[in-house]
Design goal:
The protein is mainly beta and 135 residues long. 10% of the residues lie in helices and 31% in strands. The chain is built from two helices and nine strands. The radius of gyration is 14 Å and the shape is globular.
Length: 135
């Protein structure tokens, strides 16, 4: 999915101040406060900034860390990875590949009983759940 580049002033118009802080400035929402950290609704999680589909509820699991956790993205080309050395830690930042908005971080080897042993720790405010209609 190819998107036209969006300038900073346009992002400020499109996003709330808190969305802008997390999505465009790589901020983090407080744990256990986001709308999806404990959600079990079925559907697809899309980037809140551009709408690209990033994660499916089938890959979401309860990590009890306070943020939505997924063991894999919808497809590898939907996310990009950047080395993040902020806060005195070596982490891997996860961004939307279409608009380069910050989603969260991915962690490996934590021992979760998932198919990948990865935890995509994603800010609720970075995504929007498009629920699957019950039927």
């Amino acid at each position: 999915m190819e998107h036209e580049p969006v300038h900073d002033d346009e992002w400020r118009r499109r996003l709330t101040p808190e969305e802008y802080r997390v999505l465009r400035e790589a901020g983090t929402e407080a744990p256990f406060t986001g709308e999806y950290w404990d959600s079990h609704a079925e559907g697809v999680y899309a980037c809140r900034a551009c709408g690209q589909e990033l994660f499916r509820s089938q890959q979401k699991f309860d990590s009890h860390c306070g943020w939505p956790s997924f063991f894999a993205p919808l497809a590898e080309d939907r996310v990009e990875y950047l080395k993040d050395s902020t806060l005195g830690m070596e982490r891997v930042e996860v961004r939307c590949s279409a608009c380069h908005s910050h989603m969260g971080h991915v962690f490996a080897g934590e021992g979760y009983d998932t198919p990948t042993d990865l935890r995509y720790c994603i800010n609720s405010i970075s995504v929007r759940l498009e629920e699957t209609p019950e039927g």
